[in-house]
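Hi Y.,

Following your request, here is the sequence exactly as I used it, all 282 residues.
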Amino acid sequence: MKHPLANLVITGACGGLGRAMAQAALARGARVALVGLDRSVLDSLAASAPERCAVYTPDVSNSEAMQAMARDWVARFGVPDAVIANAGVAGGFDTAEASDLAVLRRMLEINLLGVATTFQPFLKPMRERGSGVLAGIASIAGRRGMPGNGAYCASKGGLIRYLQSLRAELRDSGISVCTVSPGYLRTQLTAGNKFAMPGLMEPEAAARAILQALADGREQLVLPRRIGWLSNVLDLLPDAWHDALLLRQPRKPRAGEAGATAIPGLGAASAAPPPSCEKAAR
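Below is the corresponding structure, written out as tokens. Let me know if you'd prefer a different format.
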């Protein structure tokens, strides 16, 4: 089923993949709800088409804030054609460190719960209309656990299963559910990675591919495609062999280490998060 993309809601629109998708959609003449935490970046984006944009800065894991955002957008521009839940965070994780338990909790709140709170306010209006697209930006990392990256892999693995469940629930409703699983994107959040990043992709190229996939009604998208093939091949290896390969790679930096990126609201989930909305490194 083909879908128009004239009205979009994009979370994590401040940088990396989210910003690239917002720019591409605006260039095509779409109306775009710009959702993120860095208002100055969002305002700069909106300045290119102020009559077709609105800027929102909620914490995506706060359901009341996301519902308020949705009510305002629908009142001003109507029910969106597509909602792209792109906001996410990444970082290393060590179960032996008590402080990292807060990292796991916050990552699940943003990367998994945040997708459901993004979709929830729009689901009934889309269902009543009989059309729409719900897209969750997962990750190739959600397919297999990686040493030192357990929190991120768990959040993205859970997201893949959540999107599968939602897709089954909405089958034949006219609403498409798309699981997007990028590999590595060249963003601020991958800049600190010291391990190999095969298939490293520019966010602008990924954004174009994602918007086209959503317009075409695709249910699955892996970027770049060869990374999906590589993942499938590696999954054929015995676990011990697979783990041995990954253990040779440097770990992703943990919070506070050199190269680590900030996780909004870490350690104070109820407090206002610091300005940051770069999409998570995958």
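The longest helix spans residues 100-129.

Thanks again,
Q.
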